[in-house]
Every structure is written in C-alpha cells, then in structure tokens.
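With this grant's support, we have settled on a layout for protein records. A representative record follows, to show the layout.
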Amino acid sequence: MSGKLWIPRFILITLVLSSFRVNSQCEFSFTGRNKVFDFNLASSIRNFPHGVLSEDGFYRVEANSTVLWFQLCDVLIFNHDPPRCVGCEDCGGPSHCGTSCSALVSENVRGYDVCTSLGHASSTKVDIIDKEDPGKGVIVKMSGGDRNQNCSLSVSVICQKNKVDGPLTLAKSGTCHYATQLRHPSGCAAAISGHSSGWGWFSTLLIIILCLFGAYLLGGAVYRYFSLGIRGIDVIPNVDYWATVPHSVQSCFGSLFSRFGGSSRGQRTSYSQVNF
C-alpha cells in the first residue's frame, strides 16, 4: 500500500517544485542610480491575482497571416481556440499542439498553416528594457527550436499601473525571431528601495539620542515650571551640571593635548640629543 501511494506523492511534489522553479525565472532585480528595482512578474497584485500570466492560458496576437500564441512564466494552456497547424512536434505534438511550450507561431506556407516553437518556460530570461529608465519595465525573452533553426520571442512588459493593453503589434526579424509588447502593472517595479543612500545606523542612533535628550529637557522644564513654580534659567533641570559641561569638555581636551603634545616634544628632544 505504501508503495502505491509513493508514486502519486512523488509526482505531486515534483509538480509543486517545478511550478516554483518556473515562477522564479520571472523574478528580476536591477541596481541603478543607487536604487534596487525588484520585479516579480508572476506574483499576485491588486486586480491581477495571477500577475502577468494570462487567465485564459495564453496571449494571442495576429498580423499579416501570422498568429502568435504565448504565455509568460508558464506553458501554454488551451481551454478554447487551440492552434490548428502542422509542425507541433516540439510543442506537444499534433494532438496537443501548443501544450508543452511557452510560445508558438503559425505562418501560412503554400496554403498550409505551419507551426514553429519559439520558446519554453525553462529558457525564459528577464532583463531591463532601459537602463537609463529602469522603472519603464522589463523584457522577457525565450528561445526554442532545434539546432538548425534557433527561434525566439521577445515580449516587452511595459509599466502601466491601472490596466492591461496588448499585445497589439507583432514584429519579425530574421528567419523566426519575433517581438511584441504588453502594457501591464506587473511591469512596474514591485519594490524600489534605497541603496547606499539615506541615514546610516550611527546617524540614526545620534538622532534618537538627541530626541531623547530634548524630550528630557522639555519634560523637566514643564514639570519644574508648572509643578514647582520655578522661573528663569533655573527652570532647566540640572542647570548647574549643564553649566559645567563646557568647562569639563575644555579640560578634557586640554589634558589630552598636554599628554600627547608633551610626549611628542619629549621624543623630538631625545632625537635632537642623539643627533648631537
């Protein structure tokens, strides 16, 4: 009985780990202008619980008798309107065309719709669109095909905080390199944090000490003024002690100067005697 339950449990664990691996490939961080720009395309955000992933299971764009299907950060899922083209050997086969890759394109060749795999989730790479303007968004690139024909798809996920637009355009370069763009809230940096800037720990500690000292003086002065009826400069708590602080600091610096200054003069005197 335990041997029969071990296989499904192993498969379940494998599927969970593979899902985490795919989503982690859509995480990206960029450091520029003393800031860290963090992107996680697959994370849940407001009004978009699946992040940049299409809830339909795929995005679709068509231009000049060419149809492109793609899904970011995951494989394609066709619950409706599946691709009907030949050449799906690298993407699910003829009976499940498009179900084992992340991008698929169909072109009409001599009256036949021919499919070409453009990328897989395992080959997905994320980079910044514009290093001069990191908040603009990211570009997701995936590659596929065989050794003889290396194809690719580049999807620019441009930051748009309120709604989703696209994909509307489809560009082709070379034999089978395609590019499109998508305006999506997931293209906005999820967290922008300061780096090598702002207050350090020592400055923060100094500010806390000064604030506590100010609160002590203010609270003591209010208490002495209203409760004890003290007026004038004596309203400051421990005013006699604070009056001696400048003299104490001056005496401390004077003793340090005389100590180190005297030792240096003694060393110069000994050096002059040796030279004679």
